Amino acid sequence: MRISEYFRIPTVSSKSYTVWQRNKDVFMKDIKLNFLPPFIEPLLYLAALGFGLGRFIENIDGVPYANFIAPALIAISVMYASFFECSYGSYVRMYYQKTFDAIIATPVTIEDVIAGELLWGATRSMINAAVMVPVIALFGLIDISYALLIIPFAFLGGLLFGAIGMCFTAVTPNIMAINYPVLLFITPMFLFSGTFFPLNTLPPLVQYFAIAFLPLTHIVNGIRLIGYGTLEPVLLFDLAWITVVCAVLLVVSINMMKKRLII
Amino acid sequence: MKKYKDLLAVNDVSFTIDEGEMFGFLGPNGAGKTTIMRMIQCVSPLTSGSLEIFGMDAMSHPREIKSHIGVVPQENNLDMDFTVYENLLVFSRYFDIPRSEAERRATELLEFVHLEDKRDTMTESLSGGMKRRLILARALINRPKMLILDEPTVGLDPQARHLIWDKLRSLKKQGVTVVLTSHYLDEVEKLCDRLVVMDYGKILVEGSPSQVIEEYVGSGIVEAENNPELIECLQRKEASYEVIGDLVHIYTDNPKQIAEYLTMECSLSKLTARPATLEDVFLKLTGRRLRE
Questions:
Q1: Closest CB from B4, B45, B66 relative to A105
Q2: Domain that holds residue B195
Q3: For residue range B55-77, what is the model confidence (pLDDT) as tens digits?
Q4: Residue in B closest to A93 by C-alpha
């Protein structure tokens, strides 16, 4: 396959919705268990870091530490939800459960299957955000005037991280190898994207790198701006970065998976 | 033709399957059977050549073709996140079958494959035979015009195999075209109207089971113990035979005559005459060497 073929716009039909539905149905079977992590995790982080560690930390950019990390916790959850869904989750369905093989024997094409998986990954991110926003708002850590905007924003971020996860799924030789991108890409992002301390305390070169290449930076920044209720123009830059990179990666990830599966 | 990086999986193959017939693909492992099945299912693109199904080109109309095909794959790929009944319902959505119609068909199909008691069981806890039957039911959810089965009865006990055969026959009666691959030659001999034997990506023979047997090994086989005396005797008679280790297979249309000749002229006593089977054709054509 030539490089240019990875950028060819795939033909995706509304049938991808049936794949999304399949994953939604599985999710609903364990709905109680699935809703628990986005509910419990922010509470744990807020208790330990926000209110525990936060007592020793002075205000950051004029806000208390708990308020500083609260939006970042949502962003991290958005990243984890769709990245894991479209990496480990999709890999299990593709390789171990042979779900994709079964589906492509029907009028649903492989492009539809992958698009459905990506949409579902984004939906998981959105669900997590939707659970966390009220919890965090209850503590008074985010301004509720625009807080609902975080939910569609989480869907967009979810699409982006889903596409990233799917690219790794398309090339990973086995399920253990997905640990590499988690260790070398996701975990560093979790720590160095302006999540637990402001980006501007890092050396300028690292800052530029984070802004140019670390997607989480833009998700954290976006949710923080919406969460603070300060819709500044810089939000447009984050939105534009996410939209462009997301669009490219969605196309590339579908083509990469097609290359892996159509033989 | 189907070419992988450095392997020609299917090469210069030409066949026509008539509507309503049961057609078998035979061949050793790696002969290219599964590749052909995947090409007919429109999931594996052709490297070159053409493939037409229901009068439509496989490369340009995959969705339309697939909506009229039912597939029983070699490997079980039931959705283990769902129960037996849910498997059918979830699958019906991929064909855009309305919910109420899907529910009716699912109930009907579970009866058809005798799984109505297992309706709410998770598929993981089904036995091998039950899984195969459920996959057959799943392949029928869209009322296909053509059913493709890749090794449908592999690993099943005789009861389960007979049940599947029975179902396939009744589907054929309803006018469904059935295409299958199998290693069980008795299965193909019993079921198929026509068959091809493949090896190394090519078709070696084509015809009805009896035609193929007649043509390649004759109607009967006499088995005798291998000894030089016998070979000499057979050569004198100019008989068609094959030495297989300690055994000699003599191919004939008249096993009785050969058997008599051998007992009289060569004073041999340990002889078995039996009708020829597809297995004899298969081994004669594809050799006895073990395949990967």
A1: B66
A2: 2-212
A3: 999 989 999 999 999 999 999 99
A4: B79
